Amino acid sequence: MINAATGYCLGWFGIAKTIDSGKTWQAQVNTVEGGPRFETINFISADTGFALYGFKPMTLFKTINGGAIWTHAPAPNLMETVISISMLNNQKGIGVSNDGAILKNPRVRQQFY
Predict the structure, then answer these.
(1) 60-72 pLDDT per residue, tens
(2) Which position among 35, 55, 80, 97 has the lowest Cβ density within 10 Å, counted as fewest Cβ atoms?
(3) pTM for the whole thing?
(4) With a cut of 70, which residues of the chain have pLDDT below it?
């Protein structure tokens, strides 16, 4: 949740956004049926957010306009299945893989380690 009215959900269908506390949802990014899914999403502000998509390798997406447009963010091909990310700012974040590994990236453009 960004605030009491605005939030995001994700999964096999893609990313959806609500601006009315979940009464209605607007699709923002759709995935291919039967394909990979979005695993995790994290916003550092009302406008800037990150989402991980796929399965070995995972792809990092970023929005800077509240989810109206999502673009590939410069990041490594993640060969781990990351189930949660927490971005501290535009360049620093950590993630947790499905096997419990903690992944750190000092800059989004560099390899998680």
Answers:
(1) 888 999 999 888 8
(2) 35
(3) 0.78
(4) 31-35, 56, 74-80, 105-113
- pLDDT score at 73: 78
The string of DSSP codes covering the chain is --SSS-EEEEETTEEEEESSTTSS-EEEEE--TTS--EEEEEESSSS-EEEEEESSSEEEEEESSTTSS-EE-S---B-S-EEEEEESSSS-EEEEETTS-EEEESSTTS---
Residue in the structure block whose two tokens are 């999964």: 11
CB 69 within 8 A of CB 29: no
User: d(Cα 51, Cα 42) in Å, to the nearest integer?
Assistant: 6
Spatial separation of the C-alpha atoms in residues 91 and 67, rounded to whole Å = 18
